[in-house]
Write a structure and sequence with these properties.
single chain; about 350 residues; D-amino Acid Aminotransferase, Chain A, domain 2; 2 domains; nine-stranded mixed β-sheet; 18 strands; about 25% helix; binds pyridoxal-5'-phosphate; binds 2-OXO-4-methylpentanoic acid
Amino acid sequence: MTGLDFHRHLNLQAKSPSERDAILANPGFVDHFTDHMVDICWSETGGWHRPRIQAYGPIELDPAAAVLHYGQEIFEGMKAFRHADGSIWTFRPDANARRLNASAVRMALPELPVEYFLDSLKALISVDAEWVPSSPDMSLYIRPFMFAKEAFLGVRPAKKVAYYVIAGPAGSYFKGGVAPVSIWLSEHYSRAGKGGTGAAKTGGNYAASLVAQNEAYANGCQQVLFLDSVEGKYLEELGGMNVVLVYKDGSIVTPLSDSILPGITRDSILQLAEERGHTVTRRPVSIDEWREGAANGDIVEAFACGTAAVVTPIGQVKAKDFTIGSADAEPGELTMSLRQELTDIQYGRREDTHGWMYRLDA
Ligand code: PLP
Ligand code: COI
């Protein structure tokens, strides 16, 4: 079935069907993990080797493992969807594979051949298929990640690396489902800088976002919006999602910056919008433009998008000295219809005319 020959060590303490069903009935956002994980080793001399499927559980690491000290780590986030006929599919995994490798290059980690990436997803589903929820709007969130495991304290790229895939059932990322969220504008902290790692999916970017995310919580917001680190003027992205603005003439604008993560959800949504005839522009967009546009009626909708959040309307942006929009704003019409179109494709309710879906259980 797969190109790589995975050694299988099945989990003898796997959850019983009734334990699993109880979790699937109320999964939260990956509050629980499946019974297995996949790992593949890499060394400078041996390349990628020893692909394994094993019980989900703690990883043994030397205390000097480079990842624990210098954060040489990257990850991906994707979802598996169960279609009405029971089959299991994921969305644009080739794009995630390419992005993982772009992150690997930036973080001086080895690239993983795309077919190994696809094989690793199929390998996990081959043992944990029962964990893919069949309820509407639920999915199995899949987290591939790679880190430096060589033990040494000098600062250099590690010569031993591990790649893992773990997964867990997921309902909606935000507690309110698709209700509009409030976003806190971080005016003090930047997420990423010029020439930095902002475009890579690496742990350090998220570590850098946490203090600002705490500010967001303290101000009653669910996510934080970062601005560019040079002028503190242009929109970048949220802690874990991209941002898109909709204008009253139907045109759509999203920030262009080389320090944000190139989101696969955003890319797909914008393609769907273009196919409907909307003009889509990727350009620098300032917080003042958003503020003024929302006030004078030029900007009529805003949404956050990402694998975890899918497409979530933004009700308001709160800053220290001003607010854009309001917490009880209605979800935007275009926002919701693009969300519907995307999820219909993902869940197999609408024909996949783009060749975006990839079957994992066959
Ligand atoms: N930006 C950040 C910082 C993210 O963590 C994510 C989520 O993965 C995204 C954007 C959206 O990316 P994608 O749509 O590929 O999930
Ligand atoms: C994702 O959407 O996959 C992410 O990595 C973001 C995080 C908020 C879960």
